[in-house]
Amino acid sequence: MTLEDVIAEVLRRIVPTEEERAFVRSLMNELKDIAKETAEELGLDVRPYFVGSTAKDTYLAGDHDFDLFFAFPLDTPLEELRGKGLKLGKTIAKKLDSCEIAYAEHPYVRAKYKGVKVDLVPCYDVRDWRDVRTAVDRSILHTRWVNENLKGRNNEVRLLKRFLKGIKAYGSEIYVRGFSGYLAEILVIKYGSFLDVLKNADFMLRQKVIDPAGWLRKEPEIAMKTVKRGVDEDRPLVVIDPVDPRRNVSANLSWEKYGRFYFKAGEFIENPSVEFFFPKEDFIGDYLAELRRKGTHLVTLLFNVPKMVDDLLFPQLERSAKGFEKVLSKEGFGVLGWNIGRVEAGKAFIMLELDRTERASVRVHPGPEFFTERGRDFYRKNERVWLVGKRLYAEKVVKESVIDVVIELLEKSQVALGKNLRETIKGADILVDYVPKDLEVEAYLFLSRKKEGLKV
Fold first, then answer.
1. Tens of pLDDT, residues 239-248
2. The pTM is what?
3. Quick one: which of 176, 152, 140, 316 has its CA closest to 257?
4. Which of 209, 312, 317, 405 could form a disulfide with 308 if both were Cys (CB 3.0 to 4.6 A apart)?
């Protein structure tokens, strides 16, 4: 297929139909009416705003979740905003189809309406960056800025989003560390089109700093602090938020995810294919066969976790996995990689690929006095023997299982673990070269490098 054919085919699959657009618009109108009506019933002075991809018309076909924000006056105390915002969200959710409380900087409500997910989030009614009090406040400004600057390039954003999803580099969540939807929108606005973003993959990395709103000229002192912070933290890019010079939009973007984009962008330009956007499903093999092929071993810790959103859980899982990697390396085990995730509600896992499951260690074994019958037996049975005073001592090589080593390290609190996971990991099931049925695919993808592999 030619490049033009590929783009046309992808657009056919990702641009919402008129029927879907009409459905989205009608739901937005209904939800806004319900929000206004409920706010009036509770006597609250709030403005409802839709933010995110549905409000910007950059959502992909079939992927139209809603983010409905309730903007409180700026003079509202934060605790009052949290309390009243949560009450408003719960009251609205009762009129919808489901209700769940989630936690970020402050609690908010997740609901469903006619099969579509709806996040109901309180925020401040900010007009510019100086008014921002909480992280979510900028969302209103983001939506406004994109709508003012996108200038009909909505499908270019859709192409970039779908490309990033296809190459596994989409999502700014802390457990993904890829490109956010907002970052994709900024890049299209900055460079002009999907293809131009890809063609600039090398240039933007070398340029390092992207400043679409000219903050380095308008607020040089504040903007330079943002740049310096990004450089000091060794971020791939520093994209100064067009609505707030204090913020780097790409702060969560990892080198691994940018590197993936860097290579795949070049490959697509050289050899365009629909598979970059819609990759074939990975072949799922046998994780035990993969272990035999590599001659390595898999240690899995399976444990209960407190109820928390992924944005809070995954950084703690990552810290714990890195803690095991560091301490087991010091204990003589070669750690070839680690993997983390949820199994189901209430459980999580840490996988470690090791070069061995046992280590040999030398122990000093005290013996009897040398002039006794037992002393003569001790001397005959041991190879390395010495005297300290009249007592015999010997060196013995002892083999220790990785399970025993892990248990001892946990008992002595010698592993750096996530603060909310310390006690529960101490009670983990430790599995060697075996995982439960529901983790077999995860184990194979991890061991085969297909989960994060760039070229496999």
1. 999 999 999 9
2. 0.85
3. 176
4. 312
